[in-house]
Design goal:
Order of helices and strands: EEEH
Bound molecules: zinc ion
Shape: elongated
Helix content: 10-25%
Strand content: 35-45%
Number of domains: 1
Radius of gyration: 13 Å
Structural class: mainly beta
Number of helices: 1
């Protein structure tokens, strides 16, 4: 299953690396827009 963003191009499912943990998301191969399932649960765990 492929998703498309505004520009209607194909999006690539990739893993991105944040500060602490990585997350998966869809990156547009044309405009570079990222539609991600950002794992924000981590922000609520420990925040100093
Ligand atoms: Zn795009």
């Amino acid at each position: 299953m492929k998703r498309r963003d505004r520009c209607g191009s194909t999006m690539s499912y990739e893993k991105f690396y944040g500060q602490a943990e990585g997350y998966f998301g869809w990156r547009c191969i044309v405009c570079g827009d990222i539609i991600g399932k950002v794992i924000r649960e981590n922000r609520f765990r420990k925040k100093r």
